[in-house]
Structure prediction request, 91 residues.
Amino acid sequence: MARIFERQRIVYNRIKCLKCRDIIESRSVHDYRPCSCGACAVDGGHDYLRRTGDRDNWQEMSFAVVEKVEKEEYDVWKLLFGNQLQDENQA
Ligand SMILES: [Zn+2]
Prediction:
């Protein structure tokens, strides 16, 4: 019987800049979006959450769901994005 792993599936990868009030959203892996004042930026699309800038400058607005996948699919995902994530299945 296959082991089932939990994977985070990002639905909205977005933040609101608290300085310029821009809401910025990254829609694909290499879709890097800075806000208009340059205080923060998002990247990673639906595969991982990457933010740049000072944490105090934005409000998190992303939304993710947990998806259950089999080991093969999980391993591929880890290979592609593992360095961007904290792995909760290794505990
Ligand atoms: Zn801004």
In short: Confidence is low (pLDDT under 50) at residues 87-91. Residues 78 and 86 are 10 Å apart (CA to CA).
